[in-house]
């Protein structure tokens, strides 16, 4: 019910086309990069998928997080425009329910973007390297990992967007966070736990214990940010 309502709110805002076009743009990176510089990659010792991810994922991850940020800001812009969120409070619907509904919808769009990008990696691997034993398992693990580590950034983007009526304020704060993440995601483990930095991590080539730590950190981040949103909503209501 709440998911269908959130979908109706955004379907005329350009929300869905933005994610589709953004996904296609990100998916073009491994194809174009490998086509232009294939000689730089074909002789490397790692698996083809790992080679492609190492060469292209940082840029693709940045685009993905920017899509998440833009989508979150757009979702709450439609709520604050013409005081729609104030009118919503007169209905038997909690703001927290609306927040988590938006999180589910944004997560679904992130899955769609990752699916488009997965198809791009399948094509690039098949065309330039050829498929190999274990490819599908490696692909599934990698993109499941990307999805899980992207969830804290979804929650944080929505938290920031819900806190400001002016979309440009929330967008500016989040974009600054994204560009900070591009500089710190590989500096240290503690800094890489910043929600906007986590989507930059790659499954392949990472120590299994470190992978487990990132997975646990992602779950903890989701819970902590969700609780922070509930506290924020409660405090804000007390001052209204």
From TrEMBL:
Keywords: Membrane, Transmembrane, Transmembrane helix. The chain crosses the membrane at residues 12-36, 56-78, 99-123, 143-161, 168-191, 211-233. The keyword Membrane applies. It comes from the Bacteria. Coiled coil: none annotated. The keyword Methyltransferase does not apply. This is Lantibiotic ABC transporter permease.
């Amino acid at each position: 019910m709440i998911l269908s309502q959130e979908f109706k709110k955004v379907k005329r805002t350009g929300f869905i086309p933005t994610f589709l076009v953004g996904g296609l743009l990100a998916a073009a990176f491994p194809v174009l990069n490998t086509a232009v510089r294939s000689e730089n990659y074909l002789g490397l010792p790692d698996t083809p998928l790992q080679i492609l991810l190492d060469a292209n994922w940082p840029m693709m991850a940045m685009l993905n997080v920017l899509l998440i940020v833009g989508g979150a800001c757009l979702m709450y812009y439609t709520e604050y425009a013409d005081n729609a969120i104030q009118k919503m409070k007169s209905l038997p619907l909690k703001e927290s329910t609306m927040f988590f509904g938006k999180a589910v919808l944004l997560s679904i769009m992130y899955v769609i973007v990752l699916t488009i990008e997965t198809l791009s990696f399948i094509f690039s691997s098949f065309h330039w390297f050829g498929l190999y034993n274990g490819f599908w398992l490696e692909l599934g693990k990698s993109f499941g990992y990307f999805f899980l580590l992207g969830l804290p950034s979804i929650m944080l983007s929505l938290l920031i967007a819900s806190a400001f009526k002016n979309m440009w304020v929330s967008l500016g704060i989040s974009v600054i966070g994204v560009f900070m993440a591009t500089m710190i995601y590989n500096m240290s483990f503690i800094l890489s736990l910043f929600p906007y930095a986590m989507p930059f991590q790659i499954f392949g080539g990472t120590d299994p214990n470190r992978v487990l730590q990132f997975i646990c950190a992602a779950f903890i981040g989701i819970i902590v940010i969700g609780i922070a949103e509930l506290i924020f909503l409660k405090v804000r209501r007390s001052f209204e």
